[in-house]
């Protein structure tokens, strides 16, 4: 009769390979989780910037483009504050930090964000060409939203002077 000394179980090499494979799987899951978290944060920032852009668009949508009694260059009239802005021209070259909502109230919860508004007259036959203030019946409104001085989103739209 032969004496068989056969033990069942894993060798040291097999155990090391199994540990290596499990470690790689865990490292991959941790890296993927970090990437998903970062992507989610960027999505939240973009969503917030879009919300702030829409706040400015809604605020200015029903305002007259220019004050019918003024012929001064775009921008606020002398002594006028944000609360007194009554036409779109008042918003030219304005920056709001913290940003404002549709009622011109500061949104202090978004203090890392800011809104910048540019209002400029454009040529009626070429909306990319800027003309002097009151030089045409069309204005282009550009709103940019920044987070910590980095532009997140911008949008332009046209309005006719009526």
Which descriptors would you attach to this protein?
alpha+beta, five-stranded antiparallel β-sheet, 1 helix, 31% helix, 162 residues
In short:
This protein has one helix at residues 12-61; strands spanning 94-96, 113-123, 126-130, 138-147, 150-160.
State mean pLDDT (0 to 100 scale).
89
Extended strand count: 5
What Rg, in angstroms, do the CA atoms define? 30 Å
The secondary-structure element order is: HEEEEE
**Percent of residues in beta strands?**
15-25%
What count of structural domains?
A: 1
Helix content: 25-40%
The helix count comes to 1
Query: What multimeric state do the chains show?
Result: single chain
Low-confidence stretches: none
Question: Gap between N and C termini, in Å?
Answer: 110 Å
What structural class should be given to the helix and strand makeup? alpha+beta
Describe the main β-sheet briefly.
5 strands, antiparallel
| Rough outline | rod-shaped
What does this protein structure show overall?
31% of the residues lie in helices and 25% in strands. By secondary structure, the protein is of the alpha+beta class. It has one domain (12-160). Strands 1, 2, 3, 4 and 5 form a 5-stranded antiparallel β-sheet that branches. The radius of gyration is 30 Å and the shape is rod-shaped. The N and C termini lie far apart (110 Å). The model has no long low-confidence stretch (mean pLDDT 89).
């Amino acid at each position: 009769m032969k004496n068989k000394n056969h033990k069942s179980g894993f060798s040291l090499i097999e155990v090391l390979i199994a540990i290596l494979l499990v470690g790689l799987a865990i490292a991959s899951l941790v890296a993927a989780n970090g990437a998903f978290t970062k992507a989610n944060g960027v999505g939240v920032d973009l969503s917030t910037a879009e919300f702030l852009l829409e706040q400015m668009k809604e605020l200015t949508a029903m305002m007259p483009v220019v004050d019918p009694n003024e012929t001064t260059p775009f921008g606020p009239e002398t002594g006028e504050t944000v609360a007194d802005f009554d036409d779109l021209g008042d918003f030219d070259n304005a920056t709001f930090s913290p940003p404002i909502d549709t009622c011109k109230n500061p949104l202090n919860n978004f203090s890392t964000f800011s809104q910048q508004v540019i209002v400029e007259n454009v040529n009626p036959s070429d909306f990319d060409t800027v003309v002097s203030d009151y030089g045409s019946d069309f204005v282009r409104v550009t709103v940019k939203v920044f987070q910590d001085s980095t532009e997140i989103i911008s949008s332009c739209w046209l309005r006719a002077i009526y």
